[in-house]
Amino acid sequence: MPGYNGTITNFFLKLSDLFFGLSSLGLTIVYRYSPSQNPTFVFDYLSQRIKVTNALLGFLLLGLWHTAFSAQGLYTSHRLSTPAEELKEVAQAVAVSAAALLVAAQIGRWPTINVTTVMIFSLVSFTLIGSTRLILRFNLRRLRERGHNVKSLLIVGGGVRGQRFAAHIQRRPDLGYKLIGYVDSDTALPTKIGDAPCLGVVEDLPKIVANEVIDEVAITLAVKSQYAQIEWAVALLEEQGITTHLLLDFFPQKIARSQPVDLDGVPMVSLHSTPTFSWRTEAKRIFDLLASILLLLILAPLFVIIAIAIKVDSAGPVFFIQQRVGLSKRRFRMFKFRTMLPDAETRMKELEHLNEKSGPIFKIRKDPRITRVGRWLRKTSMDELPQLVNVLLGQMSIVGPRPLSLRDALQIEEPWHKRRFSMKPGLTCLWQVSGRSNLSFEQWMQLDLEYIDRWSLALDASILLRTVPAIVLSKGAS
Questions:
Q1: Which one of 131, 179, 312, 468 has the minimum C-beta count within 10 Å?
Q2: What are the tens digits of pLDDT across the range 24-41?
Q3: Whole-angstrom Cα distance, residue 352 to residue 363?
Q4: Residues 95, 92: Cα–Cα separation, whole Å
């Protein structure tokens, strides 16, 4: 399951950071205020009544600690950073947390928290949190060496620089990269650099990124002699939202944001044309997780009623499970309530001539395959509710570009359309609240890219608020 291991690791890190922060504070207070002649101090201290204001202040402090660690980038991937860089981030986050603790102590008038206590707390929490992360880093590298949590990497350029880079990657399997191959227009180059086969010339890049699962691309071409090819490749990759590493220089980007990184001593520049990991993306995932759990529990009785209605109305399964294309063109099984007859998929070819939409999508306003209950489910969008399971599993988000079927995704020809695969698909998006089936495929794609370029938590909230009346009014539903 793509991204599942990363989600589990981040969840563990967030819990452990808060746990060790609280433990450090408790150990510091016990150390400073528990004289040997009073061994019952801890029990006496814990038995005191906690004021409501202090409890609220304590929860606010925990939230500030979490925000401080998120803001330092401690929940992003550190496979390209050194242990020293990660420890520096921990130290900065602990310093902010310590300052927040000191301020909270002044507001809440906590007598046990003073400058000395905060200094000891900082030292203890840095030691515990830093040690945990070093241990986790060591274990993650061991897992990557065994082929887990691996990202697929394509090299553009098979010359001396590309061969050196490929050799470096293959010497370090703990970095977690799998070389799927390389492209270069020089036909005199070997058929392989290391274990990476030649997949074609640079001009074949559009076809390769369209057909392969590619997480990242490293461009190793010589800037002086192949600038035009590099610029073209950068434009193509940023258009499709694929993270790109440049080994030498910056290039002008229309929408991508550059970020210098260090891959085990190799200086590079990464270009991101999609929202990068931050506390905002973390807040989005936390919302997805909580909302999906809550809605699945609340809607369970409705699921039962819909299931009964589907079974009474027509023969066949309750759920329709279809392969869809998600983040980075990875395929996943998407759940829906069945709205068509069981043989709907096999009958599609005979109905192709009735398609009312241009582009790769297939839409018939009065589709003969739709059941009576299915028509009502589609009109109210209730057929989409089982996708809350996909949200819970991390394959989808509440808000994001709608996932295309494999048939539709394979028929996309315009390269810029494919940047929609650079963000996790969702239950609702701008297309959903702007007319849905009334819009052309071109307008749909433009709305998806507008969402990616303008993404913010406020935009997600706005789309959610607009989704309810869009469903009630059945705007564009078919």
A1: 312
A2: 888 888 787 765 544 555
A3: 9
A4: 5
Token pair, residue 155, equals 């090299």
Interatomic CA distance for residues 394 and 286, integer angstroms: 11
Is pLDDT larger for residue 53 or for residue 2?
A: 53
Residue with the bigger pLDDT between 303 and 52: it is 303
Q: How does residue 302 score in pLDDT terms, banded at 50, 70 and 90?
A: very high
Lateral strand order in the sheet of 331-337: 331-337, 319-325, 404-405
Contacts of 51 (CB under 8 A, 6+ apart): none
Measured torsion, CA atoms of residues 321, 325, 331, 337, in degrees rounded to the nearest 10: -10
CA distance 400 to 429: 5
CATH top-level class of 151-272? alpha beta
Domain boundaries, the chain: 4-145, 151-272, 279-472
Mean pLDDT over 354-379 rounds to 81
pLDDT tens-digit map of 206-230: 999 888 889 999 999 988 788 899 9
125-146, pLDDT tens digit by residue? 999 999 988 998 888 888 888 8
Give the span between the Cα atoms of 309 and 3, in whole angstroms.
35
Phi, psi of 356 (to 5 degrees): -100, 0
3-state secondary structure 54-112: HHHHHHHHHHHHHHHHHHCCCCCCCCCCCHHHHHHHHHHHHHHHHHHHHHHHHHHCCCC
